[in-house]
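From the pipeline queue, job 12 of 40. The input is one protein chain; the requested action is below.

Action: predict structure.
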Amino acid sequence: QVQLVESGGGLVQAGGSLRLSCAASRSFFSINAMGWYRQAPGNERELVAAMRSGGRTDYADFVKGRCTISRDNAKNTVYLQMNSLKPGDTAVYYCAADLVSGANMVRYWGQGIQVTVSS
């Protein structure tokens, strides 16, 4: 298992920046992938950015060029730097970690953190 704790959300004006942090309770070397997802009211949860164990990153089209996912292995922390924020980025952002459990891959979620972008 892994516990994930997000921080860094809040209220920001359109065009501003935020950096979200997700602290994991275990080393990244035992985690297959880390990611950030978001869910706005009435919408399904969607992928924002992910980092695989080999360092490969994936971004949703709606954040390409505006967001960067990174990690600090020493701190077991993954970050999501978000720039040029838009009101449409308003959502609860969730950190996720994928771990192998036997023959299965299990996804763990953080509690979520609110990001609100005002126009």
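Job complete. Residues 80 and 112 are 13 Å apart (CA to CA).
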